[in-house]
């Protein structure tokens, strides 16, 4: 009786497959003399109590179910996924667009600090300034000493990417290009 509980738990699809397999096996002896065939297996894939670690168990009413936040564990011998692969990544896509609308095309560059790749003309200085602010262009405190005019020629600076495992999204419209360079330092000098 124990062998019948496992297929009942797995659902009607398995029972249908087992019924079709049994029907094919019943019809096989009539044609068995004409062609040799592989030996048929009519048992459950795993004996009771010897299922792999990830095999579903029947729910018993006296047991409390696992909490919804518990994650399934991989079976022994399977590689454990490494979720910290993005932790050291420091890569941002920086964009400068004229005007207040960031959907218009503008200049764009990829700033990669870890792993370092030369794509930004001032990559070393930009990575150092972003490291001090935790990867947030809006939190940078630069002391460039630039004196800017009060002309209104808006420019929008935006950044998106990952910095130490966090997703960064930044967008700010400055009144002119000089004010943007004064506020962001070497990050948007491309």
Short description:
Residues 91-176 form the Subtilisin inhibitor domain. By secondary structure, the chain is an alpha+beta fold. The chain has four helices and five strands; from the N terminus they run H-H-E-E-E-H-E-E-H.
Q: What is the name of the CATH class of the domain at 90-184?
A: Alpha Beta
Structural class by sheet pairing and helices: alpha+beta
N-to-C SSE series?
Answer: HHEEEHEEH
**Percent range of helical residues:** 10-25%
How are the SSEs ordered, and which strands pair?
Layout: H1 2-10, H2 12-31, E1 90-98, E2 107-114, E3 116-117, H3 123-132, E4 155-163, E5 166-174, H4 177-184
Antiparallel strand pairs: 1-2, 1-4, 2-3, 4-5
Main location: secreted
GO molecular function, one term: serine-type endopeptidase inhibitor activity
Keywords: Disulfide bond, Protease inhibitor, Secreted, Serine protease inhibitor, Signal
Q: Could you characterize the architecture of this molecule?
A:
- The chain has 190 residues and is α+β, with helices and mostly antiparallel strands.
- The protein has a domain at 90-184: Subtilisin Inhibitor (2-Layer Sandwich).
- The protein contains four helices and five strands.
- It has a five-stranded antiparallel β-sheet.
- A hairpin with a 1-residue loop joins strand 2 and strand 3 (116-117).
- The termini are far apart.
């Amino acid at each position: 009786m124990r062998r019948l509980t496992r297929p009942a738990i797995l659902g009607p699809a398995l029972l249908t497959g087992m019924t079709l397999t049994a029907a094919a096996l019943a019809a096989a002896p009539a044609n068995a003399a004409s062609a040799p065939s592989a030996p048929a297996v009519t048992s459950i894939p795993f004996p009771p109590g010897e299922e792999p670690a990830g095999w579903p168990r029947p729910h018993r009413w006296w047991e409390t179910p696992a909490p919804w936040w518990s994650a399934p564990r991989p079976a022994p011998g399977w590689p454990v996924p490494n979720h910290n692969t993005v932790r050291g990544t420091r890569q941002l896509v920086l964009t400068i667009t004229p005007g207040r609308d960031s959907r218009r095309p503008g200049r764009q560059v990829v700033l990669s600090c870890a792993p370092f790749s030369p794509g930004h003309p001032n990559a070393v200085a930009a990575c150092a300034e972003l490291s001090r602010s935790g990867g947030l262009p809006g939190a940078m405190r630069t002391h460039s000493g630039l004196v800017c005019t009060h002309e209104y020629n808006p420019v929008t600076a935006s950044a998106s990417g990952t910095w130490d495992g966090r997703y960064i999204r930044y967008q700010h419209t400055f009144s002119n290009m000089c004010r943007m360079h004064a506020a962001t330092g070497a990050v948007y000098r491309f």
